[in-house]
Amino acid sequence: MSELLKLGLIGLAGGLGAVSRYGVNALCAWGLRGWGAPGWVWGTLVANVAGCFAFGLVWALTESRWPGAEGVRYVVLVGFLGSFTTFSTFGFEALGFGVNHRYGMMAVHVLAHVILGVLGVWLGMMLGGRTPSL
């Protein structure tokens, strides 16, 4: 697969992933309203967990059963799942630390992403002129 074709397919898959993410959010807002704590974001949780599952499945299949399918891996993992959720990559990386018995790195990885992610949202809101209240 040429680099130009790969880039085009990643872009197309990214668009499909973004539209799918919107669909998951809308479906969860409709189908799961009233479940859980008020304001709980089911769509985000469902998309992130589904994305992690899909990431693991596609990675495993392209590693073991379809080793020549590197292009498929890029299109699905970077394109579709990259826009559907970046949490899938985060989960994959965290698992990699655990599988390699680097539990300290796994903990730092998880804590850093969660804490810095929340702080990044807060800082972005502050710089954007909206003071978040906790």
Automatic annotation (TrEMBL):
Positions binding Na(+) in this chain are G82, T85
Family of this protein: Belongs to the fluoride channel Fluc/FEX (TC 1.A.43) family.
* Predominant location: membrane
Question: How does the record classify its membrane topology?
Answer: Multi-pass membrane protein
As recorded in Swiss-Prot or TrEMBL, the protein's gene is named: fluC
PANTHER family according to UniProt: FLUORIDE EXPORT PROTEIN 1-RELATED
Q: Mind telling me what this protein is named? A: Fluoride-specific ion channel FluC
Query: What organism is listed for this UniProt entry?
Result: Mucisphaera calidilacus
What does the UniProt keyword field contain?
Answer: Cell inner membrane, Cell membrane, Ion channel, Ion transport, Membrane, Metal-binding, Sodium, Transmembrane, Transmembrane helix, Transport
Q: What HAMAP family does the entry give?
A: FluC
Q: Which residues cross the membrane?
A: 42-62, 74-97, 103-125
Origin superkingdom = Bacteria
Q: Which biological processes are named by the entry's GO terms?
A: cellular detoxification of fluoride
Output the lineage of the source organism. Answer: Bacteria, Pseudomonadati, Planctomycetota, Phycisphaerae, Phycisphaerales
